[in-house]
Amino acid sequence: MRNRRSKDVSSEDYDESVAMNRTSAAPEPGRPIMTGLASLPVFFNVRGRRVVIAGGSEAALWKAELVQAAGASVVVFAAAPCDGLAELERRGASVALVRRRFEPGDLDGAVLALADCDIAEEAEQFHAAARARGVPANVIDKPAASDFQFGAIVDRSPLVIAISTDGASPILGQALRGRIEAMLPAAIRLWAGAAKSWRAPLKALELAPKLRRRFWELFNERALTASAVPPGPDEFKSLLAEATAEGPRAAKGSIALVGAGPGDPELLTLKALRLLQAADVVLYDDLVAPEILDMGRREATKIPVGKRGYRPSCKQDDIIDLMIKLAAEGKRVVRLKGGDPMIFGRASEELAALHAAGIATSVTPGVTAALGAAASLQLSLTERVRARRLQFITAHAHDGRLPEDIDWRALADPCASSVIYMGARTLNSLVERLAAHGADPSTPALLVERATCPDERVIRGTLASLPAKAAALSPSGPCLILIGAVFAGGVEAEQIREAADIAIA
Ligand code: SAH
């Protein structure tokens, strides 16, 4: 046995379990020895080797496809194979079909033995035949007759992730696989492929172990960030230059404007989640749910920079100065904004200042409040006849009053759906101005407070009735006003509810 302690960090070249779990294989005094591993996970190279499958079912077909994908030379024994197996053989996969029952001698020279047996006795016989030849066996759904199990897999070859619950709950394994799939950046397969092809040239350079490790750490940073694009032809050279640069590495700071959605944390995009998990600092708005902040890296610094209407709050210039300062320090900053960053979020001012300061920026969209509200209400914002146009409007000018320069005729258009942001406080004057511009007072109008949050409230009415109803319920959370013919569904629902209330009374 080689003593791993005497080896340098390049042990990760050979054994990923060492790279991932341990730096030393020898149990130090006092460290408990690992026990209780349900089964031994190994990644088995079957390229060009004989794998025998007994049985012609659909389940056997899936195993044949999987094993040939790993490059094995597969032989399937089945008296009456399913059509798929014949198709697999015909399409030139390395699968040979032998149309007769399996016999124990077929296992000679095989490295793995797989079978689909209905009867327990048959499964035992197959297992015994494999054992007699020293060939590990798996009988589908018969753990007692199997030496090994297949896990649920995530295939981003050369990166392969396998999950086993030791038969406890294959469905749990599948669900976990889904989560892992969603977590992986889209380009991870290409990055893993690049790592494979760069390993030899990197080794040939005979760098000091410390520099080689730095190379792979930088590699990880690029491969695992949300914005990960496929590695280009110059990536190897640029990573090498960065890894071997003299002195401490000057980290490059960046600012990502990220939409956090309207409230429900499940509405966060996968990209937003990955950026949060890679951030050093998160600057967040008032409207961002605490659950979303909890999804970020635990070690990240989280700074509230809320701009609260009508309350003391951070000045926009101070926020911009803070962003520039953090990026200059080399921090990866996520600027988390409620809804979508490009809708009533002053993103253009922030981006212009950051670009002028030469800071790398990116923007990740989020679900804007209007779309969250439409989803909650299950009301389409557009419709072929009743709503050909959709407009998002802010009813909050610099001075907190209703802006004067709104296109009132457009807002009174009976064939448009209008969603009004920051409009709860100016609702009365808005409705008055609309009436003066010829809007029909019976036009359906809704107020949605805290759309998509557990305490969401909807106030249903018309242009004529909404202001009084809203005043009576005095909402305190963020509110949208929705005006237009398509919101009539809500009005009917309210009428039904009022009718029901009367009946109960
Ligand atoms: N960028 C955000 C909007 C920021 S302006 C977006 O795309 O949604 C802030 C205003 O958005 C609030 O005053 C309110 O009008 C609206 N808003 C944000 N979240 C909301 C929610 N969950 N429910 C209702 N309105 C919301």
UniProtKB/TrEMBL annotation:
Domain Tetrapyrrole methylase: start-end pairs: 255-466
Gene Ontology MF terms: NAD binding; precorrin-2 dehydrogenase activity; sirohydrochlorin ferrochelatase activity; uroporphyrin-III C-methyltransferase activity
Biased composition, class Basic and acidic residues, residue ranges: 1-10
Cross-referenced CDD domains: SUMT (cd11642)
Pathway named in the protein's UniProt entry: Porphyrin-containing compound metabolism; siroheme biosynthesis; sirohydrochlorin from precorrin-2: step 1/1; Porphyrin-containing compound metabolism; siroheme biosynthesis; precorrin-2 from uroporphyrinogen III: step 1/1
GO BP terms, alphabetized: cobalamin biosynthetic process; methylation; siroheme biosynthetic process
Residue ranges of the region described as Disordered: 1-30
PROSITE patterns the record matches: SUMT_1
Spans through the membrane: none
The organism's place on the tree of life at top rank: Bacteria
Domain Siroheme synthase central: from-to ranges: 156-183
Reaction catalysed by this enzyme: precorrin-2 + NAD(+) = sirohydrochlorin + NADH + 2 H(+)
Annotated Gene3D superfamilies: Cobalt-precorrin-4 Transmethylase, Domain 1, Methyltransferase, Cobalt-precorrin-4 Transmethylase, Domain 2, NAD(P)-binding Rossmann-like Domain, Siroheme synthase, domain 2
Assigned keywords, A-Z: Cobalamin biosynthesis, Lyase, Methyltransferase, Multifunctional enzyme, NAD, Oxidoreductase, Porphyrin biosynthesis, S-adenosyl-L-methionine, Transferase
Pfam families named among the record's database cross-references: NAD_binding_7, Sirohm_synth_M, TP_methylase
Family from the record: Belongs to the precorrin methyltransferase family.
NCBIfam families per the UniProt record, alphabetical: cobA_cysG_Cterm (TIGR01469), cysG_Nterm (TIGR01470), PRK06136.1 (NF004790), PRK10637.1 (NF007922)
Protein name (Swiss-Prot/TrEMBL): Uroporphyrin-III C-methyltransferase
